[in-house]
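Before the break, one more example. Copy the sequence into your notebook; we will annotate it together after we see the structure.
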Amino acid sequence: MDDREHLKELLLERSVRLGDFTLSSGAKSPYYVDARRTTMTAEGQRLTGRIAYDLIDAADWDVTHVGGLTLGADPVTYAIAHHSTSRDRVLDGFTVRKEPKGHGTGQQIEGGLPEDARVVIVEDAVTSGGSAIRAIEAVRQHGATVAGVLCLVDREEGGRAKLQELGVPLLAAFTGPELLGAARAAAGA
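Here is what the structure looks like once it is written out:
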């Protein structure tokens, strides 16, 4: 089994749930992907780092940093950054807070992101693109350049189009319909 299939298997076992769910976008869905149940495990970290790094490398975006809006992006960020230390290009991580800190330096971006950095915004899942867009806006306001967005799961519910309107391409390891179909098949539904 290759790494992508292994990660898909882990997502199906640990993260994909069938039922009636309300997403953070407010939309209703017959399935939910709680990717953190996979990305916060040792094996999930290893596979996520390798697969996501390879997607970024193949896109040839010439980036120096990866990061996104806390909390869903955090384990994906750390997996990629850690994996990058064994590869030709090291990618440092950063985290975008939902709001700037109300104390200390008042930062919204943690992790020492240089103003001239070229970055990939990462997400566990993209639905409407709202979290990625918030991260893009914060990173651009900081002075860094966003080369693209990478997510584990593109639910294919409008997020890609919204990102394209901002001139930001989206890469995904999996699609929501792909995982939903596999979950339904496994459940005999």
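Residues 118 and 187 are 42 Å apart (CA to CA). The first helix runs from residue 3 to 14. Try to locate both features in your own notes.
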